[in-house]
């Protein structure tokens, strides 16, 4: 007689939160590529003004997210991660839907800022799973959870572009709201959390880093998340313009740009679980350092590419390195952080990523404006090398501290 073993709760939560991450990624990316076009329909703006408004609408979400994330993280450590997942899902349901009704650009920008303040579904999904997953499976599990958001981010612009082309730019926002409502229902009924609130007032008030043994390494992971996000998003403002230059303004530039933009995500989707599992076997430090070296090595040749195909090949390879970076940094934080402060640590990580999403594109726009599109790839290589040096230093310094302490 075959004995059926019951699936552990953390695994059921993983599947439900994968769906939630997929929905969040798809919904959020569904309208972003067309935001400047939506703004252009709201008035007869000159080019500089349209660019300014689009920049405010993009960055406003990440700025407010960076500011409020530590507050939500502290609250999560008191109330549990599931209430924070529900807060984010319901908040984005409302703000995304209202954005579709925006009568002017200032209402649009204000709603985007409010949306950033209520966001954080993906971050809290990581925190909940990190608090439950067995340590020996943390890398593979974080890699699997990452594929949910990445897959949604890949599919979202394709669906959004098709719908917007037929029905207009407001409809993707309504679809975003509808998808987040589905995420709310999925989270409410399928995510279970056995949360034990903090009973020690002193531990609640002290720094979330107080109970962490390898503080330098955890700080390095948070700053690494910021630099990885800055490097990843820095290409976004210039990618379509660079593709247009490589194609000599002939052919379907929009389609080619979409494919080039999607290639890293496809590679990350394929490689993240495998590299996460590798980190579980040989240690996350080796995978992270190798990923950073490989990432820098792939950005340098982009400076010399002469065709869209060459650019696509290196973009795909960068996606493989991305699979060795963000999931691994989250796995390291999971292993190093006590349960009572894990939400606050992950909220700092989310703030760092949000700052990276603002700083990266701003740096790239400045470099491209002063020099040329190609120099953005060299700037990004510099960010990756700084990241590599910081991670190596943190691990060595932490190792020496532990060694001296043992003596």
UniProtKB/TrEMBL annotation:
The keyword Transport applies. Pfam families: MFS_1. It is found in: Cell membrane. GO terms for molecular function: transmembrane transporter activity. GO terms for cellular component: plasma membrane. It is a multi-pass membrane protein. Residues 13-399 form the Major facilitator superfamily (MFS) profile domain. InterPro entries: MFS, MFS_dom, MFS_trans_sf, Tet-R_TetA/multi-R_MdtG-like. Coiled coil: none annotated. Keywords: Cell membrane, Membrane, Transmembrane, Transmembrane helix, Transport. The chain crosses the membrane at residues 15-39, 51-72, 150-167, 173-191, 217-243, 255-275, 287-310, 316-336, 377-397. PANTHER family: MULTIDRUG RESISTANCE PROTEIN MDTG. This is MFS transporter. The lineage of its organism: Bacteria, Bacillati, Bacillota, Bacilli, Lactobacillales.
């Amino acid at each position: 007689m075959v004995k059926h073993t019951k699936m552990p709760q953390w695994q059921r939560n993983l599947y439900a939160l994968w769906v939630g991450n997929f929905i969040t990624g798809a919904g959020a990316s569904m309208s972003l590529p067309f935001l400047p076009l939506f703004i252009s329909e709201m008035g007869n703006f000159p080019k500089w003004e349209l660019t300014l408004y689009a920049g405010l609408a993009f960055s406003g979400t990440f700025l407010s997210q960076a500011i409020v994330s530590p507050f939500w993280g502290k609250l999560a450590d008191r109330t549990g991660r599931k209430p924070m997942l529900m807060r984010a899902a319901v908040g984005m349901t409302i703000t995304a839907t209202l954005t579709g009704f925006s009568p002017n650009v200032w209402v649009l920008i204000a709603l985007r800022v409010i949306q950033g303040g209520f966001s954080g579904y993906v971050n809290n999904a990581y925190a909940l799973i990190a608090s439950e997953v067995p340590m020996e499976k943390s890398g593979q599990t974080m890699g699997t959870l990452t594929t949910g958001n990445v897959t949604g981010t890949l599919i979202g612009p394709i669906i959004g572009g098709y719908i917007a082309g037929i029905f207009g730019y407001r409809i993707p926002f309504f679809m975003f709201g509808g998808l987040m409502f589905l995420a709310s229902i999925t989270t409410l009924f399928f995510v279970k959390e056995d949360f034990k609130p903090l009973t020690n007032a002193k531990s609640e008030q002290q720094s979330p880093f107080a109970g962490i043994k390898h503080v330098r390494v955890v700080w390095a992971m948070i700053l690494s998340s910021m630099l990885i996000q800055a490097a990843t998003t820095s290409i976004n403002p210039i990618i379509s313009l660079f593709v247009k230059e490589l194609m000599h303004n002939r052919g379907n530039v929009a389609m080619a740009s979409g494919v080039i933009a999607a290639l890293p995500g496809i590679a990350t989707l394929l490689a993240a679980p495998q590299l996460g599992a590798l980190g579980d076997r040989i240690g996350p430090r080796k995978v992270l350092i190798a990923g950073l070296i490989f990432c820098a090595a792939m950005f340098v040749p982009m400076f010399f590419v002469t065709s869209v195909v060459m650019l696509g090949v290196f973009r795909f390879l960068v996606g493989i390195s991305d699979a060795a970076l963000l999931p691994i940094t989250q796995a390291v934080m999971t292993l190093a952080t006590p349960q009572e402060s894990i939400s606050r640590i992950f909220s700092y990580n989310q703030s760092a990523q949000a700052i990276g999403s603002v700083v990266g594109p701003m740096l790239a726009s400045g470099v491209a404006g002063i020099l040329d599109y190609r120099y953005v790839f060299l700037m990004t290589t510099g960010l990756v090398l700084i990241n590599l040096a910081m991670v190596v230093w943190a691990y060595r310094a932490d190792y020496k501290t532990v060694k001296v302490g043992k003596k």
